[in-house]
Amino acid sequence: MSDLERLRRSRADFDRSRESAVLTRRNFVSATVATAAAGVAGAIYPRQALAENSNRLLGSFRSGIPAATRHGALGLGRYRDELVKDLSQLTDLSFKSQGAQWWQLNTFITPIEQFFIRNTYATPLAAYDKRVDREHWRLKIHGNGIEREITLTYDDLIKMPSRSIVCTLECAGNGRTMFWEKQGMNSGDTKVKGNGWGLGAVGQAEWQYVPMSHILGLVGLKKSAKWALFWSGVDAKRAGEQSETGRPLPVGELTGRGDVIGLVYKMNGLDLPPDHGGPVRVLVPGWTGAASIKWLTEIKIAENNFWVPLSAFDHVFEGPTYKAPKPDPDDEFRFCKPKQIVGPMVTWLKPKSLITLPLQVTESHALPHNYPLKLAEKPRLPSGQRTITGFAWGPQYGVARVDYRIDSGPWQRATLRGPNMGRYTWVRFHFDWDAQPGDHVIETRTTDLAGQKQPDEDIPFNSGGYEFWGVPRMPVTVV
Fold it and tell me: Are residues 209 and 263 in contact, defined by beta-carbon separation less than 8 angstroms?
């Protein structure tokens, strides 16, 4: 079967499930990338294939997409001045955190207006800060780990060879609510802190990017290079100030995965929106979203490690089962001190699953004002034959299977729905259930291709509530 035939068949398959022009455009992107070869690590294709196979066909959809979707513009339903795009399809956690309404997700590619937001501060805007203005944006790449220092403009970047990848992006705090609801870690020595994301800090998009393998070729990577610091410094408390946002990445990740780690400037075929890091962010597939630094302005590649808030005391595992790493004398510190290193960084994310029903919340400290359930209320389903749908992902190795059980009964195999395009993408699944009246608990479990499966037992405590990957318990009432 030719690539074009695959494209057409995939498009026809996705078109049958579309409900609007917005969702049509999003799903068709996923159909386009289904031409990627089976078995590759994620759905990746070069700029030429993108232009030939998708741009011509996608153009008709873009004109019908609302402004809030196309460019992250102000929308009628927005309710946070610190953020840009219409937020009416997200759960309102705080001015810097907006969760996906996962019970509403049904598409392989997450529309931008349904994609979660996690900021440190308010989204920086070009109108107030030239550092995020495409005309003035600069990326400095320097350090003693490379042969040549360079500074790139936005035009420089978008003229370089690019690729596109479909992959999930997930905050390390996704599922934190389960530490409270399932494991009771909400007080005393095992009190977990942070946003109550539920299961909404994950989404999947098509990202167009310049691979870091190309960038490393331009600067000349030295054999002595050990770490790369990806730095924003832009999303500060006030416009124009220097912020503390950045994160280090081992050079081994860049040399081993330089074709999939890259500098992103488009999301779902559109210019990268401000709330999602525009004009340029880095993308590190499979790692916590904190590694994919937004509003990128600097890359420093060096023979030493870097310590910053996001690697010393934030987005790290702090708890009795985790050992804090020790810095070397030559390491560089930004906005933190050696004594503030409390645990190892969150890196690769584990296999997870969710079903598209809201979660009963009884132990969490607060509910978003627009959450569909009241405190302790369970989602309600009509009795009879029901089809339960969900998403599963395992970005380190890829999804092998998804199982489900009802009321602690035997595990049964769920049906995976294509496409399954490699380790970095999620898959959709479903199973049929003859729902009888009463209270029930639905559980799902992802197993990845390395044999890792979501555990039934408790996940070890860490104070930030990062990387809950246990089997999620979803209570429901059938009426």
Answer: yes
Contacts of 337 (CB under 8 A, 6+ apart): none
The owner of tokens 């499930």 is: 17
Q: Which domains does the chain have, with CATH numbers?
A: 1-348 (3.90.420.10), 352-478 (2.60.40.650)
Least confident of 71-85, 172-186, 226-240: 71-85
Backbone phi, then psi, for 406, in 5-degree steps?
-120, 125
pLDDT digits (tens, 9 = 90+) for 180-193: 999 999 999 999 99
Distance (Å, whole) CA 110 – CA 27 = 8
In this prediction, residues 461-469 reach a mean pLDDT of: 98
Q: What average pLDDT does range 45-62 have in this prediction?
A: 36
Per-position DSSP letters for 411-431, written without gaps between them: -EEPEEES----TTS-EEEEE
Evaluate whether 353 touches 391 at the Cβ level (below 8 Å). yes
d(CA 411, CA 454): 13
pLDDT at 85 over 90: yes
How do residues 370-381 score in pLDDT, each as one tens digit? 999 999 999 999
Strands 163-170 vs 384-393: parallel, antiparallel or unpaired: unpaired
β-pairing, 384-393 with 352-355? antiparallel
Token pair of 322 as six digits:
């985790």
> Residue 355 phi/psi, 5° resolution?
-110, 155
Site of tokens 């050079």: 251
- Integer Cα distance of 287 and 447 in angstroms: 18
Cα separation of 149 and 28, whole Å?
40
Tokens describing residue 10? 């995939």
pLDDT digits (tens, 9 = 90+) for 338-367: 999 999 999 999 999 999 999 999 988 778
Burial label, 12 (beta-carbon count in 10 A; 0-12, 13-18, 19+): exposed
Q: Which residues in 237-251 are b (16+ Cβ under 10 Å) and which e? A: eebeeebbbbbbbeb
Residues pairing with 405 in the sheet: 443
- The dihedral through the CA atoms of 155, 161, 167, 171 has a sign that is negative
pTM of the shown model = 0.86
* Cα–Cα dist 377/375, whole Å: 6
